[in-house]
Design brief:
The protein is mostly helical. Helix content is 69%, strand content 0%.
Length: 409
């Protein structure tokens, strides 16, 4: 019996057991699926039949469900976390007398993809998956940029979002075919202005997500010094950021590069209090600026976040009451209104304190902490499974990997 158990453990560690092979297959399928399913649905909407938000939800459920099954093992961590989180959310729903299933999805998906990466802990698989995701994204980005008319014949992005109800004809000024409404900048580009005002979206169908995705790929390449194609991955990532004209993406890549030596040395307590220090700064700033007009730049988003936070009732901040205030442009405000202050504290602390098997794994965790701290100033898009599938899978792998021989590519 002891010999059989030793063989079983060795097979699992080397990825030869059926359970691990099953998990590896679903890791690749689900992560690449989260990346491309919107493009697939857009194609169906353009060439075959109309799609709706229900189809999007069903696709997300199928991909996340497959990842959940693959992530399960003897450890109770994932089911226990989900049970505690769902119980907390049911309490909030009862207090608010309103159900919000999207809030559950916003946290369940990251937990599942993190657990899947943690279970596999295979750096070479993560390297290849990141590169494959980058190549797929860059290929469609070039297709969109160089052959826009042909691209729209197959992928009518605007029509897809109108069909889903995410964009109205009023928003599109009566147009029913074209790029997403943010696919063209009204002002000159920030990054390489000679490329024109077209902000490329690729498989994500809107440019913000492509810029965010570029940050994740760049951070992984910066982190994986042993990977033989890390420079290719980083070049692809910066190309995506440039084509999307993602100012946030460019600034964040610079910040994580400058801070790279500090991640492993920074005490966890600093990371835990960081977002709540930001909240305090926003609150004080909001009391000073009042209701001044805001623009679409970083400063304008900072002001918008401050104004939203300072005008939220205490019952909303503590999660006892729902609100219809628009918070999509502020991740801090969105997180507070969805999960309440205690939920925000609990979720963030859990993320920071999740186990890391090797000190080097903290470097990538630190990069993703910086990414989240910065993106929450301007958007709630980090909850999207389009970019979150790969991000949380890579974070799980980095947290569990031993960085020993045979685990570096």
């Amino acid at each position: 019996m002891a010999a059989a158990e030793t063989i079983r453990i060795a097979e699992e560690r080397n990825g030869f057991s059926p359970a691990i092979q099953f998990a590896r297959f679903f890791a690749v399928a689900s992560v690449l699926g989260t990346l491309t399913f919107n493009l697939f649905l857009c194609f169906v909407n353009t060439r075959i039949t109309a799609m709706s938000d229900s189809h999007v939800m069903l696709m997300e459920m199928a991909l996340t469900g497959g990842a959940f099954v693959a992530a399960l093992d003897r450890r109770p961590g994932l089911p226990l976390f989900l049970a505690i989180f769902v119980s907390y959310m049911l309490l909030l729903f009862a207090l608010r007398q309103q159900t919000d299933l999207k809030a559950i999805r916003d946290v369940a998906s990251p937990a599942i993809f993190f657990a899947l990466g943690y279970k596999l802990r295979d750096l070479r698989l993560a390297d290849r998956l990141a590169l494959a995701a980058g190549v797929v994204t860059l290929t469609f980005a070039l297709f969109e940029y160089l052959m826009l008319d042909t691209y729209l014949e197959w992928f009518n992005v605007l029509g897809y979002y109108i069909s889903r109800g995410a964009v109205t004809l009023q928003d599109s000024f009566g147009a029913t075919k074209g790029l997403f409404i943010s696919g063209t900048r009204p002002e000159p580009r920030t990054i390489l202005p000679f490329l024109g005002q077209h902000r490329v979206s690729s498989v994500f169908l809107e440019p913000v997500s492509m810029g965010n995705f570029g940050v994740i790929l760049y951070s992984w390449g910066l982190f994986r010094s042993e990977c033989r194609y890390r420079w290719l991955l980083m070049i692809i990532a910066l190309s995506l950021v440039t084509m999307a004209d993602a100012r946030f993406g460019l600034y964040t890549c610079i910040v994580v590069t400058v801070m790279r030596p500090l991640f492993s040395m920074t005490p966890k307590q600093i990371w835990i209090i960081a977002p709540f220090l930001f909240l305090t700064i926003f609150a004080l700033y909001g009391l000073v600026v009042g209701y001044d007009d805001t623009d679409n730049g970083i400063g304008g988003r900072f002001t918008a976040t401050a104004i939203i936070l300072t005008n939220l009732p205490s019952s909303v901040i503590f999660g006892a009451e729902a609100t219809d205030v628009f918070t999509a442009d502020s991740g801090y405000a969105y997180t507070l209104t969805k999960f309440g202050l205690f939920g925000f504290v609990g979720l963030w602390t859990t993320f920071v304190l999740l186990p890391v098997n090797h000190a080097r794994g903290w470097t990538f965790r630190g990069m993703m902490i910086i990414y989240l701290l910065l993106i929450m100033i301007i958007s709630n898009s980090f909850y999207s499974v389009k970019t979150g599938g790969l991000m949380w899978f890579l974070t799980g792998v980095a947290s569990a990997a031993s960085f020993g021989i045979g685990l570096v590519g």
